[in-house]
Write a structure and sequence with these properties.
The chain has ten helices and eleven strands. It has 312 residues and is an alpha/beta fold.
Length: 312
Amino acid sequence: MKMPHYGFFFYVTKHLIMCFSLISFAITAHAVETTKLPLPVDGRLVVTGSVALSNLMTYWTQAFSERHSLITVTIADPGGTAGIEALVNGTADVALASAPISIKQKESFEARFGYTPHVIPVAMDAVAVYVNDSNPLTSITFQDLDAIFSSTYRCGESQPIQTWGTLGVKGNLAKQRIAVYGLTVDTGATSLFRETALCGGDFIKDFQALAGPEAVENALMSDSAGIGFSSSAMRSAGIHPLAVASHKDTLAVAPTTETIRSGQYPMSRTLGIAINRPMNQPISPALQAFIDFILSPEGQSVVTKAGYVPLP
């Protein structure tokens, strides 16, 4: 019986395999040669503005630097108004905004560039009212706050509230005079507190305007008769936030993640960053990388860790 001849079959197969191997190698080599990895982004960013956001921005910057070590971010926090001015003057790339940009600020920017600043929402928080933990008070109304902090009484009260006993506090604290604290007048928190809790009125002469949430925190921790307002992100042992009612006939609401995000808490606010984005022109790669990180899931997780409320 004649055996089949396999020599020719193996010869052809071997050469086909070699041919396909060479083609595959050539395609791979071409891909390696033509595919270029994106160059790392470098640059320098200057951020200024809101005192409330400067703490959050510090957390963002630390996390961002781990991803983009060639981009340097410098943070200053002189207040929201100064931040917009720096954006107009070109001395800052980002202005932190804890309150809506005023008409005057928009007009100043537009007069310089011919268009308005671009504002990007980045997080949420609220203006919260705090007292020392030795104070048993748990809630308060706008009318009460107006009578404590204001000299104009535009929210309905006709007399000042000067002692804790007037608010129903018992014991040794009842006869103590209320000491009032808050942030400086150039902050978004003070602007919002004044417009809502004081119905646009004026602060009393004894109001102590302090530079930053940490200063308010320290004052209240050491003063059992004190009351003050600051960012709801401030959570420290020794003080507690009060639930706030916009009117005596409404339910007082505590500043929690849920009530701030829903707007149920009466002094909730959206925090943002303002940038100079020329019309029909891209922003710098460094600034785009920073914004992309802030709005990413990782960036929004930093919001939660810092005590603020991530975007819905």
